[in-house]
Amino acid sequence: MNMLYAGRLLTGLCAGAATVLVPMYSAEIADPANRGTVGVYLDLSLTVGILMAYVVGGLSGPTALSAVCGVLSLLAAASFFFMPESPQFLVLKGRRAEAEDALRWLRTGSAAPTPKESERDRAARLTPLCAGGHRVDVSAELDSMTRLAVESEERERASGGVLGAVSGLCKEGSVSPTSRAVVLVVVLMALQQLSGIDAIIFFLQSIIKSDGSALGPMYSSIVVGSVQVAATLVAALLVERAGRRLLLGVSGSLMAASLAALLVYFLFHQELKVDLGAFSWLPVSCLSAFVFVYCIGFGPLPFLMMAEFLPLEARSWGCGLAACVNWSLMFVVVRLFNLCMNSIGEAATFGIFCAICILGTLFVLTLVPETQGKTPSEIRQHLQDREIHTVTRRMSTPGGLGVV
């Protein structure tokens, strides 16, 4: 048992680190045109892993599942030896030449430079030929990264570093773009977990046992896991077409509708003792629908938007804070889920999750800006404009700060 606890502790630490580092790395290496699609891959890997756990664990047991997960983890770790460093990170550290090489490799896959490369050869290398014969100029993107790094360093010096930036979040009347970004990211992460998704996934077989599904717990879990993977693939296809905000709004509203249907089922089946044998398919259908719409919006997009909203100077500690909130709330919700199911019943428990999904949808539609196709500077400018609008409105109201 001690070995089980130790292994779970290590996997938990690694998973927590991955949810901080992978969104940052993905956002910094992705081409702006497909940043959203690349950002969804983290959630795709999670859903594939959950489905694999249902299949291998259900058919072969925990020993085989641990072995498969261990081998896949080793392969993933080995693959990082062949991946380039983030160009944005290299620029931030003043290593421009290495950033050029990394960016060129990411955009074109061309060969590395020779040790005694001339300036002319170096200039030619920045516009290499792709397989299709079109020239790709990475110098403009590199210059943009350089400007972003300079602006980030200036803001960090002005705020007094990390401690100054954190203390600035708590100043009354001061809502900087960084503060607004941190609040948006933390609330999105909180809403993701408070929707009840992980509690439902972890206790899926117990929920299905209680509703008497004809498929049985194991196969019902595999169905729901397959739905997760399919929905995440849909999200990857839609995120750069429909936009983040629309997907979040649709996801939140349909999650609430799925939970409302589940609430009604359990209200009649468990509380009012109505025979719903003819509707035994409904719980698995509602859970599948809930998981599907979660995976097209509130599943992958908070992690993607976390890296998009946070500026460079706040990205490391901001992502860490958001991930800490996410994992902490996951622990709380999972711990309280069984207690709520046993004390207030299934209907009331799913009713709470339904209400949170409704509030989350309203939050997205009223306060979360669209980030699709926008550069980091444009996203920050949008948050800055909202700050100016808020301050102006306060100053123009009776009893406000005075004359604009």
From TrEMBL:
Residues 1-372 form the Major facilitator superfamily (MFS) profile domain. It is found in: Cell membrane. It holds the Pfam family Sugar_tr. GO terms for molecular function: transmembrane transporter activity. The keyword RNA-binding does not apply. Its main location: membrane. GO terms for cellular component: plasma membrane. Keywords: Cell membrane, Membrane, Sugar transport, Transmembrane, Transmembrane helix, Transport. Gene3D superfamilies: MFS general substrate transporter like domains. InterPro entries: MFS_dom, MFS_sugar_transport-like, MFS_trans_sf, MFS_Trehalose_Transporter, Sugar/inositol_transpt, Sugar_transporter_CS. The chain crosses the membrane at residues 6-26, 38-57, 63-83, 181-207, 219-239, 246-268, 280-305, 317-337, 349-368. It is a multi-pass membrane protein. PANTHER family: GH07001P-RELATED, PTHR48021. This is Major facilitator superfamily (MFS) profile domain-containing protein. It comes from Megalurothrips usitatus (bean blossom thrips).
